[in-house]
Structure formats: C-alpha cells, structure tokens
Amino acid sequence: MQREKRSAILLLALAFILSVILAACSSGNNNAAGTASAQPSESSAPSASSQPSDSNAVDTSEEVKLKMILLGGKPVDYDLVFGELNKLLKEKINATVEVEFLDWADWNQKYPLKFAANEQFDLVYTANWAYYNDQSLKGGFLELTEDMLQKYAPKTWAAMPAVSWDQAKVNGKLYMVPNNNVEVTNKVVLYREDLRQKYNLPEINSLESYANYLKTVAQNEKGITAYGAKAADGWKWHELDQATLEHNNDFKVIDTRVPLAIKLDDATGKVFNIYDTPEFKELLAYYKDLADNGVWSKNVVNNKNDVWQDMKAGKVSSYAQNLGTVAANLAEARRDTPDQQFAIADIAPNSKKLAAISTQNGMAIHATSANPERALMLIDLLQNDKEIHDLTMYGIAGSHYNPEGDDKYTAGPNAVNYPAGISNWGWNSELNRQDASYPQEANDIFDGWQSKIYHYPLETYVFDDSNVKSEVANIGNVIIRYGIPLEYGLIKDTDKGVADLIEQLKAAGIDKVQQEMQSQIDAFLANQ
Amino acid sequence: MKRYGFWHDALKYRTLLLMLLPGVLFFMLFAYIPMAGVVLAFKQYTYDGGIFGSPWNGLDNFRFFFDSGSAWQVTRNTALYNIAFIIVNNVLEIAMAIFLFEIAGRWFRRVFQTLLFLPYFISWVVVGAIAYNLFSFDYGTINAVLKGLGMEPVDIYNTAAYWPVLLVVVSAWKAVGYGSIMYLAAITGIDTEMYEAAEIDGANIWQRITRITIPNLYPTIIILVLLAIGNIFRGDFGMFYNMVGNNGLLFASTDVIDTFVFRSLISSNDIGMSSAAGFYQSVLGFITILLANYAVRSYDKDRALF
Amino acid sequence: MSTQRTTRAGAGQTAGSAGRGRADKRLFQTIAYLLLSIVSLFCLIPFVLVLSASLTKESSIIENGYQLIPTLISTEAYSLLFKYPEQMLKAYGVTIGVTALGTAFGLFLTSMTAYVLARKDFKWRNGFSFFFFFTTLFSGGLVPWYLLIVNYLHLKDTFLILVLPLLFNVFYILVMKSFMSGIPEAIAESAKIDGAGDFLIYSRLIIPLSKPVLATIGLFIALGYWNDWYNAMLFISNDNLMPLQYYLYKMLGNMDGMRRAMIASGAVVNLQIPSESLKMAMTIVAIGPILFAYPFIQRFFVQGLTIGAVKG
C-alpha cells in the first residue's frame, strides 16, 4: 500500500515534469517561430516608411497574394465577385486577395485566436465593438504611419477627415483605416402612425407626447405591447436611454461599458456618474410611470424575441433604434404589411446631433503581415476606387444589384447570393450607394440633422481601460444586475433601487474608473 | 525482490503498460502539454509575448472576481445547484432504470426509453425559448391556463424563489433519460441467478429491488457521483444562460461562476482573466475531489477513483 | 456468486414471467407503467412543440407562440435548411463518417485502457487513474490548445481533428473501469493458468462479458461525436469537412450574430429569416437519423448478456 502510493506519486511527478519540459520546449519553438515570421514585417515596415523620401513610385513588380479576414458567412457568389475583384487587382496593384470568413456565430472566439496563433494573414476587419483597442494594445495590428498612408493609400488620405484618423488612434498611434461614412448616432423611435391617428394623439416629438402615445396604446389595445425592448441581449446602455436621457440633456456617455458621462458643452470635460444625477431620477420616474401603465412586458428582461419581427406581426407598437435601421424597417413594412402604417419620430428634436465615431468599422493590417504595403493599397482601392467599391459592396451590376445613377441602387435578381452582412462595412465611404426604396422622410430627418451635427472637444477621445480592467468588468455586471431591472420599473422602491445601484457601483470601483477617465481626459484636453 | 523495484515491475507489466500507452500518450499530448497554459492566469497576455513571453502580473487577473463582492455568492450557488443536480438526477435515473428493467412489455420498454431520451437532444437554446413561451407573464401558456381557471397569474421571471426548484426540475428533465441508460446497463449486468434464488426464497419485488438491485448498483453510483463531484464548481453555462439570461432580478439565486464570468468578460474578452476564473474552479474542484476520494477510499479501497 | 456467474438474455423477462400473477408484482408494474407514462409524456410534449413549430409559418409563431398542432403549416424552414441539398448531404456524410470511425476506435481504446486500470494486480493502476483523472480538473484553456493543434500538430482543416479530441474521455474510462472491476477475477486467473496473455484475456474474455457497458459507452461516444460542433468551429473552415451540427449552428448563429453586429456597426438591419421555426427545424434535422437508429442500438443494452456464461 505504502509502496504503491509512493510509486504512483513518483510516476505522476515524472509525468508532470515531462509535460512541463515538453511544453517548455514547444514554447521555445513558439517564440522562435514567432520572431521568425515577425522578422519580415519588422524589416519591411520601416523600409516602407523610409522609402517615400527616395522615390515616389511604388514597386509592385512582384505579384503578391493577400489574405483578408472578414466577419460573416461566406457569400454564395463569393468566387464570382472576388474572382472579378482579383482581375481588377492584378491589373491595378499586381496582387490578388483571398478572404477567410469568420462566422457571426463564433467570430469573437476565433478572432483573437488567429492573432494568438500568429496565423498568416494580411488584412482584417476591426471595429470599436470588435475589440479594436484591446487588439491594438496587445500588439495584433501594424502601426500605420502618416508616411505610409500618404504613399500607399493616397486617395483615402485625401478623402478622410482628420477627425476620423484622430478617433482611430490608440495611445496616439494609429492601427486602422477607419470607414469614412457620415452617420449620426442619435436614436429615433419607430411607432404606429395608424394607432396615433386612431386615438387622435398629438404629434410625437417629445418625451411627454411619446409617453402619451405609449400609455394610450397600452390601455386601449389588448394584445399589443406598447414598447418593445430586447433587454435579454444584455445591452447595458440601451437605445431608449440614449433617446431619452442622453439626447434630452445633451449628455454623452464616453464608453458604453461604464455609466460615466460628460456634458457636451462642458469645455472642461468633467466626468460624472450618470446614475448619480437628478436627471436620471427623473428618467426613472418617467420609466416607472410607463412600466406601471403596462407599456412594456413585465418580463422585458427575458425577452429574446426579435422586436422588429414582433412589430411587423402587430404585437408591438414602438421601439427605439438608429435612423438607418428604422428607415429600412419602414421600407420593408411598406412592401410587406401595407395595412399597418409606421412612422419615425425624433423624441429629442432639439438635442445636439452627434456624428458616429469613425472606428465603428474599419480595416487593419496584421502586425506580422509580409506585405503591408500592398495590403494598404488594397484598402485604398476598396474604400475609394468607385469600380472596386461598387463591386465589393454590392456585387456584380445587373446581377446582384442595379445601379441607379451614381449613388443609389436597387436589388438585382441574384441579390441573395451576394448579401450584405460580411462586414464589407469596413470600407464604407462616400462612394456608398443608398437603397432606392429608402424612405424619403428618413432622408429628410437625416438632412435636418446634418446641419445640427455638433463637434465637441472630446469627440476624438477614446477611453483606455488597461489600468482598470477588473473594475470595468465588475461595473458591467452591476449594471445588468441592479441597473437594468431598475430602469424597466421592476423594482418597487425606486429610491432604494438607485441607492443600491450607486452603492454597488462604488463597491465595483466606479470611483477608480472615474478618476482614471478624468485624468486621461484632462491630459487629452491639455494636449489640444 | 524489492531490489529489482521499478524495472522489475515494468517488465512484469509490459503488456498492460503497452495497452495503456495509447491513452497515456493521448493525454500527455492533448491534456498535459497544453496544461502549461495555466500560467496565463498569472500573466498579462500579449500577442508578441505569447504564452511564456508575456509579462507576469501576479494575482491581477483574479481581482475582477474576488473584488466583485459576488465571489462567495456565485461559488456557493454553483456548488449547491450541482449538489442538488447530483442527488435528484441520480435518484431519478436509478428509479427510471429500475422501472424500465422491471416492466414486462418489451415493446413498451423501448418506447419509454426512447421517449425519455428525447429531451437530451433539445438544445438549451430551444429549451430556453420554450420556457419563455410557457412562463411569460403576459402571454405564457401557464398563466393562460391559470387565468382560465380563474386563478392569479404567477410572475415567474420576476420571482427569484421559484428558480432553484425550476432549474432542478429542468435539469432532471433533460438529463434523466440519458443518465438512466448507464444504470440500466448496470442492472442488466446483475447475475440473474441471484434474482431466481430470491424468488425461490419467497422474496417480494420490493425486497428484490432493495436487497439485490440497489446494492449491486453501489459501485456504479459511487463512480458516477465521484466523477460529478470533481466538477461541482463548474456551472452548466448553456442551461443557466439560456434559462435565466441577463435577468438581474434572479441572480441572487441563479447566478453561477460561469455565467458571472461570462458577463464580466463579454466586453473585454480578456484571456488572462478567463484563465484565472478557470484556475479558481479547477483548484476548488481538485480539493473537493481529493476529499471525496479519500472518504470513499477509507470506506472501500476498491471503489475509489484513484 | 463470484465463480458461478451466469447471465442470460432478458434478465427482466425471466424475472417477469416467473413473478407473473403475484399481487406485489402487479402493483409494482402498475406503478411503473403509470410513472413512466407520465414522465414520458413530459418528455414528449416539448418535442412535439418543437416538431410542430418547425412546421409552422414564422408569422404564426410570432403571433401565437408555440402550439402543439400547427395552425398555419409551412415548410419554409426546411426548404431554407435544404436550400443547398448537396451541402447538407455532405455534412451528414462527414458526421456519419466521423461518428462511425470515432466510435469504433474510441470504444476499443477506452475499453482497453479501462481494463488495465481495472486489473487489481496491476500495481500502478491508482497512479494512472489519477494521471487520467487529473486532466478533467485542470486545463490550459483555449489558447494553448489552439496553438498546439494549429501550429505544432498542423491539424487545422483535417478530418483527423474531428476524430482525435473525442477519442478518449476520462469519464468513460473510469466508468468502464468500475464495471470491469465487477467481473470476477477468477475468470482471468483461470485463463492465465491456461497460458493466455493479458491482451488475449481482455479481447476474448472481458469484452464479451462487458457488453452492456460497451453498448452504453459506445452510445455515449457516438452521441458525443454526433453532437460535436465545437472542434469543427475552431478548426474547420473547409466546406467539405463541415459536420452537420456545425453546419446547422452556423446557419442560426450567423443570423443572430449578424443582426447584433449590424446594429453595433451602424449598418442597416434588414433581414427576413424565419429564425424561430428554423431553430426548431434544425433540432429535428439533427435528431432525425438518431431516432431512426436508436431502436436498433437499443437491443444491445435491453437484452444484455447473451453469451457470457462462464463457469469457474
């Protein structure tokens, strides 16, 4: 028995040591492999940036194959469209491109692994919501210098507003070519115009008129949920909060993971906890009133149904979303369910309108790409070459889409085989076409907003969470647990709910995050 | 004899060792080598550094979990739920296996067994969707029935008290058909002569089950329970996430380590922090299984895991 | 018991017919039928809901929720799933191939390993048991695993990576070990005296005596392969190697994921996919073949041992 035990332990120890040695050996290989493949890029990157001084012509005599990673399912007509693209690329920059698609179902698991394993690829889609900052700080992307951009992406350099470049900088360094698309982030609501008329309600253009509409529907329309929310998604800072609290008070939440905001017109950039404001308490009273009147389902936090599908089915009478999405909903409803009339309303019409941050979509170059120059040239063509842009965004003219003039299109007979949704948004630009069925009123709203777009000093500031990662993680958890049920009026005693929420946030370290953010902002403003 | 020691034994067991070789190599390669990655729990992961070159950051990766104030609560929930699952599921599995074995109709036995197996195939995503359809306050089937009977509707998604029971029931519903197969196999392996002898002695069916069937199942019960105990600190993410989702009102009684960690890290995707959480679960599981195994060992050496 | 182990076909049957007519037996049977019927019903109803929803028009599900009998029948979800039938057939083919191969090898290796660990005269069995068990407690996580498979073993996009990771399962090894420990040692002893080697004892004596547990573990291994999408998700990008569950998982996940990402990226969300009925249809498509095969597999563990009569 004793002996048996001892030899068993010995054996185990042996096994463990062996595995550690093996692992250590393999790690040695790993590093060697890593540096070996990292070498070419390190040597090529500086040469790329030093070259412009010697000559202006870019040497493309050697044909290269580029590999690009995009998010989304592989389109049915991928071979057709990208075959066509490769013909053009061969001619223009003596390169061809091959795409690997990371499915929407699992991209967030695979995406970091591609970098960790240092797989060979040149270009990759990135975005602020796709861990752009994190990947940049971990060293996943190649830094893009001004020289490189001027030399290899001249059209993009010329077309992109400076503010877009600034927004894409992480600790002062640029790692992506952001998309170039003027967009407004303000949220609007979609509602049933026929119901509003049925009950003779005034035009919806404020919090009060909207509440009036919702409560009327809730009271009089059995079987219709007045407001649809898909809270089960876990969006912590949701569209209705934006439409109500933020827009109506001209607050701006800096990073949607933490409830810290600034006042848009505050030049000093003072950060405050948005849950600790009288405005939030007012909002809660507003929400509680709606909840108590049965405006949304009591089980709103477990609702997994697609809100728009529910609306189309006549089960929900309103929801909040960005303008582009509700406009597309409107076009769809006019085609499919003409018996229901929908309309779009801005419930904070006098608010300052904010342009979308450029990093919502973009393309980056892998840190160990062997051909960063050609990759950058490809991005330039994708974003700013009309022919290539049209091809990659909409497919083949006459088959996947029909061009209508220079800036509109209609769906072609094979539209389903080269669909959107493969994150070709990474090269959105002013060359984008608009769907011809896009509702006019949405365009009118957008045009009205354009003139009201407000630029503020912190527009290009991006929060760097590296020092407070644990706190940010915990704050997110607290918001889901204490904040969301409170907002949806599920907690009876609102005052106690707010007190709990703030107390829990403090315990999660909100003060530390606030200090960190404030000192970053102060430094940022001092540098301007 | 003793002096020959290791090499003598190795020679003696050469065939057995050879038979073990595929398994040993497999786990060396696919389990022990990548296991070196546990160091990530103590590192600030960067791509250029990789697993071994990234800088150490001490216990920083554990902070998000232990500073959250929920560490104890979610750890306790995870263990309690798993204990409940182990007890309830095993009892029901044994009961179902005995019933299936004892019923006379061969055809019925097959039909029942197939039906019991069905829930295993329904993914948690679909179970979650069906549950919402049943439990929803406004349109749920249960409340429609209650209202039809003139009773007060129940607000299941806003009442934390229902959930421990609900989750135990759902877990059993999904697992029992699958688990009972193991016990059925064990019962099938019992020597029929024992039953015949008991019958001749005039034992009734209850006595047969309690004196022959169940004692003969002890080894199977012990091994299955021991194996489950090693994972007592790992929550069934698919189940909890799809049933409870992001409903903060229920967290006090439903949040387990895995769902908590998932929510914490969803917006940062941090490799070090998720490794740290996994390491914490491993250590707790390791301690628990050592204790449980020791307990079984002191009761019966042959029945222990190792 | 130990030396005179006799097991016969349908142990329950034998006991059943002998006991017919006795009151306690009848009472017990009644209770058993009743309880099994109730439990089975609870297992069946959700399945019928799934089946019915898979055949219901999407708009009807959104309006009325799931129903036991579809009000508006539509095969839209199935036609969407089988839109590219050759893809679907290929996926079935890969899954069947992986399952067959994996189960055969897995069962052989598992039982062989378990047998050694069950041998009471094998001095190091506890050490090795622990060596195996330890791997279920600690793991290095996803990143080292991915690095190993992709950078060192170069198994990305190979058929092998669908088979290898599930070949051994510690739980099955230890469960089987426990079953085999119950087989009387005298059997092996007598064979040994006759000069049989360890491998021969395992393959000729122990395997036939372990049929019920082999059938059970075989079924579990097969189900593990059949339902696995995770390894394919990580390592397969070649359409020709895509197993069924991953193919289905991708279809659904792409829709949900795309919708979320489109909102986050500010893109216009305009998708019309019957995701509710699709989810249900996928369940049916994935279970279908198993439900057909199950009654045939069942015979192995319902009947139990037929040729194990070994007298000492």
Automatic annotation (TrEMBL), chain A:
<dbReference type="InterPro" id="IPR050490">
    <property type="entry name" value="Bact_solute-bd_prot1"/>
</dbReference>
<feature type="domain" description="DUF3502">
    <location>
        <begin position="458"/>
        <end position="526"/>
    </location>
</feature>
<feature type="compositionally biased region" description="Low complexity">
    <location>
        <begin position="32"/>
        <end position="55"/>
    </location>
</feature>
<feature type="region of interest" description="Disordered">
    <location>
        <begin position="32"/>
        <end position="58"/>
    </location>
</feature>
<feature type="signal peptide">
    <location>
        <begin position="1"/>
        <end position="32"/>
    </location>
</feature>
<dbReference type="Pfam" id="PF12010">
    <property type="entry name" value="DUF3502"/>
</dbReference>
<protein>
    <submittedName>
        <fullName>DUF3502 domain-containing protein</fullName>
    </submittedName>
</protein>
<keyword id="KW-0732">Signal</keyword>
<dbReference type="InterPro" id="IPR022627">
    <property type="entry name" value="DUF3502"/>
</dbReference>
UniProtKB/TrEMBL annotation, chain B:
<feature type="transmembrane region" description="Helical">
    <location>
        <begin position="161"/>
        <end position="185"/>
    </location>
</feature>
<keyword id="KW-1003">Cell membrane</keyword>
<feature type="transmembrane region" description="Helical">
    <location>
        <begin position="115"/>
        <end position="135"/>
    </location>
</feature>
<keyword id="KW-0812">Transmembrane</keyword>
<dbReference type="Pfam" id="PF00528">
    <property type="entry name" value="BPD_transp_1"/>
</dbReference>
<comment type="similarity">
    <text>Belongs to the binding-protein-dependent transport system permease family.</text>
</comment>
<keyword id="KW-0813">Transport</keyword>
<dbReference type="InterPro" id="IPR050809">
    <property type="entry name" value="UgpAE/MalFG_permease"/>
</dbReference>
<feature type="transmembrane region" description="Helical">
    <location>
        <begin position="216"/>
        <end position="233"/>
    </location>
</feature>
<feature type="transmembrane region" description="Helical">
    <location>
        <begin position="16"/>
        <end position="42"/>
    </location>
</feature>
<dbReference type="InterPro" id="IPR035906">
    <property type="entry name" value="MetI-like_sf"/>
</dbReference>
<feature type="transmembrane region" description="Helical">
    <location>
        <begin position="79"/>
        <end position="103"/>
    </location>
</feature>
<dbReference type="GO" id="GO:0055085">
    <property type="term" value="P:transmembrane transport"/>
</dbReference>
<feature type="domain" description="ABC transmembrane type-1">
    <location>
        <begin position="75"/>
        <end position="292"/>
    </location>
</feature>
<keyword id="KW-1133">Transmembrane helix</keyword>
Automatic annotation (TrEMBL), chain C:
<feature type="transmembrane region" description="Helical">
    <location>
        <begin position="91"/>
        <end position="118"/>
    </location>
</feature>
<keyword id="KW-1133">Transmembrane helix</keyword>
<keyword id="KW-1003">Cell membrane</keyword>
<dbReference type="GO" id="GO:0055085">
    <property type="term" value="P:transmembrane transport"/>
</dbReference>
<keyword id="KW-0813">Transport</keyword>
<feature type="transmembrane region" description="Helical">
    <location>
        <begin position="30"/>
        <end position="51"/>
    </location>
</feature>
<keyword id="KW-0472">Membrane</keyword>
<feature type="transmembrane region" description="Helical">
    <location>
        <begin position="280"/>
        <end position="297"/>
    </location>
</feature>
<feature type="transmembrane region" description="Helical">
    <location>
        <begin position="159"/>
        <end position="180"/>
    </location>
</feature>
<feature type="domain" description="ABC transmembrane type-1">
    <location>
        <begin position="92"/>
        <end position="280"/>
    </location>
</feature>
<feature type="transmembrane region" description="Helical">
    <location>
        <begin position="130"/>
        <end position="153"/>
    </location>
</feature>
<feature type="transmembrane region" description="Helical">
    <location>
        <begin position="201"/>
        <end position="223"/>
    </location>
</feature>
<protein>
    <submittedName>
        <fullName>Carbohydrate ABC transporter permease</fullName>
    </submittedName>
</protein>
<dbReference type="GO" id="GO:0005886">
    <property type="term" value="C:plasma membrane"/>
</dbReference>
<dbReference type="InterPro" id="IPR035906">
    <property type="entry name" value="MetI-like_sf"/>
</dbReference>
